[in-house]
Design a protein that fits this description.
about 40% helix, about 0% strand, elongated, mainly alpha
């Protein structure tokens, strides 16, 4: 797969950005997978918990404008104390405001979508709940696992096996050995 901007060949199809120009490659991979046509995902979007909480709080708050007058009319018809009117007014008004405040402070704003692949294949596009600009999970060995070699057991880089030495180095070593009596 090549970058459409600079033409740089990419190492893998799972790469998100071009290594040369930084162009986002996830859309290119989706176009290739779809045969040149963009895939249209199944759009069963769910609302974020924060927005749902705000809607619930506003509904409770606005419900007070309907229920409190009805309770006031019933209280007047029954010639009762207006205790229930005040209780409903306080509970619904303050409860709605507190629900909105709770949603704004503590609930997540990430929308949850159910975009399931029907083929069961792994999609190269990030899921809607995932953050696009985050790094992939760690796949390397952590530094605290490293242990230094035992003293005296290390080798010089010129003595590594499997690699032929240069002609100059081998000649110099032979000459050094010849000079020693």
């Amino acid at each position: 797969m090549h970058c459409p901007i600079c033409g740089q060949q990419q190492i893998s199809r799972e790469i998100r950005f071009c290594s040369r120009c930084g162009f986002e490659m996830s859309g290119v991979a989706a176009l290739i997978d779809g045969g040149g046509k963009p895939k249209t995902p199944n759009k069963e979007w769910k609302i974020s918990p924060r927005r749902k909480g705000i809607y619930q709080g506003l509904f409770i708050f606005l419900l007070s404008f309907l229920i409190v007058p009805l309770v006031a009319l019933l209280t007047m018809a029954a010639n009762a104390e207006p205790f229930f009117v005040a209780a409903f007014a306080i509970i619904l008004t303050v409860g709605g405001i507190l629900r909105v405040a709770y949603a704004l402070m503590f609930e997540s704003s990430d929308p949850v979508a159910s975009l399931d692949d029907k083929e069961g294949s792994r999609s190269l596009l990030p899921k809607s709940g995932a953050k696009v600009k985050e790094l992939p999970p760690e796949t390397s060995i952590p530094a605290n696992v490293y242990s230094p070699p035992i003293q005296g057991a290390w080798r010089d880089t010129n003595e590594l096996e499997g690699r032929p030495g240069s002609v100059t180095e081998n000649t110099t070593k032979l000459l050094e050995n010849d000079e020693k009596p």
